[in-house]
Design a protein that fits this description.
This protein is an alpha/beta fold and about 700 residues long. The protein contains 23 helices and 17 strands. It is about 45% helix and about 15% strand.
Length: about 700
């Protein structure tokens, strides 16, 4: 029964906090890629985001093997609206099941060696504590090694030293090299106590070590496309070069006064009591004490680095609880201690509930992407940029649900730059809507949602529940108002064409931009939204559906002198005008934007004073007033209004949709009479076309 409760509590932790953080990303992304891309290594995430040091693929391969039957079944039967995010649950559940299986073996050994009552206390204490249960399903390198460590401890306590060496070799050489201190000290004690001889250690250790080394080198060299022993490089980086300290340092005794008390909760006070009652506990604790003491010399410290020792400390605490509880009738002092032994579990449980509630709000990136999936339909044309905070706090490839959406994690982009306006949606870190990060988008984007995260804990002793979890805004979901903005140049001294400047902005040379990373190859991502056409390419109209299928959102017309009949928008001096079922003469280089909504009934454009005045004087044509009539869309051969018509007069009249009459002597002065950035709303039933003079 207690073991079943262990699985139930582990599931609660998984479902309360399904998202992952950046430390878990490699194993999770690698498992995703194995499941979805198979042997197509070119699409794997680690080639684009390799991380500081390489990690082994053996763990992800084993996880994908465990998950694949469920994954195939769910996809085949399309059960419960199966989505990729269900796959993340399956991956984490498989890892958690592996840890719990190994933990169950250790529990059976505790039952066999220390008795059933101690085994019951051992499981109960573990369930009541937060960190071990929280971490056991997280795809961290430490947790990948945890099942092997638990099995090694199990065989050590049972006296099966050959099995202990094999599992230790796998854990050390494949997953976590620092375990050589922990498991190596156990082997030295066995050698010192003459429970195993040096010859036997070599007979078992050399084949075990070579097998583990060959496995990781062969597998990982294939996956990384170079000769590599991942854990060897990790050891060199962290221990020899000590570069892990770049991620923060802690005092020497931090593991003792901070990590262990938080991990064990109130049970930490019972550990020395257990060693006092049973000498066998001392033998279990000594390697843990040596490991933590030596590991403390590394400045960079994290609680998960010593998670392998928590079950051993709990064996000591369980021994104390069992002895105190069994002798509670012997004296008043023991009776008081028995109250603490039973009551402290409730205290641990309360602490676990608080920490679990806090952890739920520690993944704003995952919640933000989930919110965007709810707000926008799957059929929407979405190109979302995921900022650094979002990428580190919950976004993974399993959370990228829709294949037709583009998810981009390009780093080092400047807020408000033209690059940022290539995206239809943005996930932006900000503390409020007035934050500096949001100012560049105040007039160009709408706020769809605000995702809050954990801020601090407050206490109100007048309330029935005195603890309050306070949150603060962390991530804003933005949507571009004009889904296809007019791309304009900034004033500069050179005479480069618009397309040259545009290409310089959005088609960066990858070799010159090593620092830029994205969720897919940069140039390939850009190609999905930009397409160039030259004169010879336009023998046929541009099919709207083809552009839509290719996710192209911008088209460059380069040196085109064709009459185009297509469904897209043409950017000219009057803004974006619809050309559905109507011919437009493109007589110079243009940037053409089209809408993905073929049912659109109107567009908005921005008037720009971009007409170049001619230096050559021309004879003044006779004065004549012309009114440009609306074009009837129902007629296929609607007239073309171009410069040849406009040049017949030097006095022009344009009637806009709101019946305003704009008059001017020349085309140039007509442009000057229209205020800069004035919006003109053009309905299909009333088109007024004004072409730039050549």
């Amino acid at each position: 029964m207690d073991h079943g409760l262990l699985w139930f509590v582990a599931a609660i932790h998984l479902f309360c906090c399904p998202y992952t953080k950046v430390e878990e990303s490699f194993n999770l992304q690698a498992t995703h890629d194995i499941l979805y891309h198979g042997a197509n290594l070119s699409r794997y995430d680690h080639f684009e985001f390799p991380g500081v040091v390489p990690r082994t693929f053996i763990g992800p391969l084993l996880l994908s093997f465990l998950v694949s039957p469920f994954y195939v079944a769910l996809e085949f039967f399309n059960m419960a609206g199966f989505s990729k995010f269900v796959g993340q649950y399956l991956v984490r559940a498989s890892l958690g099941a592996s840890v719990l299986y190994a933990f169950g073996k250790l529990r059976q050994t505790i039952h066999h060696v220390f008795g059933p009552d101690t085994a019951f206390w051992f499981v109960t204490l573990t369930i009541s504590q937060y960190h071990f249960m929280f971490y056991l399903s997280r795809t961290l390198p430490n947790i990948m090694a945890l099942p092997l460590v638990l099995l090694a401890l199990n065989y050590w306590i049972r006296g099966k030293r050959t099995h202990f060496i094999w599992f230790s070799a796998g854990a050390i050489i494949i997953f976590r090299s620092e375990l050589a201190v922990f498991l190596g000290s156990i082997l030295l004690f066995e050698l010192y106590n003459k429970r195993i001889g040096p010859i036997r250690i070599l007979q078992v250790g050399i084949p075990a070590g070579m097998s583990a080394l060959c496995a990781t080198v062969v597998v990982d060299s294939i996956m990384w496309n170079r000769l590599v022993w991942p854990e060897g490089e990790v050891f060199w980086f962290n221990s020899v070069l000590n570069k892990s300290s770049q991620w923060g340092t802690s005092p020497f005794l931090w593991y003792w006064y901070s990590a262990l008390p938080r991990a064990l909760g109130l049970s930490v006070l019972l550990v020395p009591v257990g060693a006092f009652f049973d000498s066998r506990v001392k033998r279990l604790l000594l390697p843990c004490i040596i490991f933590i003491s030596l590991f403390s010399f590394l400045p960079h410290k994290e609680l998960r680095f010593i998670i392998y020792t928590f079950p051993v400390f709990n064996v000591a605490a369980a021994t104390a609880c069992n002895n105190i509880w069994m002798g509670r009738h012997k004296s008043l002092m023991r009776w008081l201690f028995s109250i603490y032994a039973g009551g402290h579990i409730a205290g641990n449980a309360v602490l676990t509930l608080v920490l679990l509630a806090v952890a739920h709000y520690n993944y704003p990136g995952g919640h933000a992407l989930a919110s965007l999936h709810k707000i926008e339909s799957q059929q929407s044309a979405v190109h979302v940029h995921i900022d650094n905070l979002s990428a580190q706090t919950g976004v993974s490839r399993f959370t990228q649900l829709y294949d037709n959406w583009i998810y981009n994690k390009t780093e080092h982009l400047i807020p408000g730059s033209e690059d940022m306006f290539l995206f239809t949606h943005l996930l932006v870190e900000a503390k409020s809507k007035y934050s500096q990060n949001l100012k560049p988008y105040s007039s160009s984007h709408d706020i769809l949602d605000v995702i809050s995260g954990f801020s601090y804990i407050s206490f109100n002793y007048n309330s029935f529940v005195p603890i309050r979890i306070k949150k603060k805004p962390m991530i804003f979901i933005l949507k571009r108002i004009n889904i296809l903005p007019v791309l304009t140049d900034k004033a500069d001294d050179d005479n480069r064409s618009k397309s040259e400047k545009f290409e310089e902005k959005v088609l960066p040379d990858i070799e010159k931009s090593k620092k830029i990373k994205s969720s897919g190859p940069v140039r390939e991502n850009i190609k999905t939204i930009i397409k160039k056409y030259k004169d010879e390419d336009l023998t046929e109209p541009i099919p709207f559906e083809q552009l839509k299928d290719e996710n192209i959102t911008s088209v460059i017309m380069e040196n085109v002198e064709k009459t185009v009949d297509s469904q897209h928008f043409i950017q000219n001096s009057t803004g974006n005008l619809t050309t559905d079922n109507k011919k437009i003469n493109i007589s110079e280089q243009k940037v053409v934007n089209f809408t993905l909504d073929s049912n659109s009934q109107h567009v908005k454009g921005t008037v720009k004073n971009e007409v170049k005045k001619s230096n050559t004087k021309k004879s003044k044509p006779p004065e004549k007033e012309i009114k440009i009539e609306p074009i009837d869309q129902s007629v296929d051969n609607s007239p073309i209004i171009d410069e040849s018509v406009l040049s017949q007069t030097n006095k022009l009249v344009i009637e806009t949709e709101n019946k305003n009459i704009l008059k001017a002597d020349t085309i140039d002065t007509l442009h000057e009479s229209i205020p800069e950035n004035k919006e003109i709303h053009v309905e299909p039933s009333d088109h007024s076309l004004l072409k730039e003079p050549k």
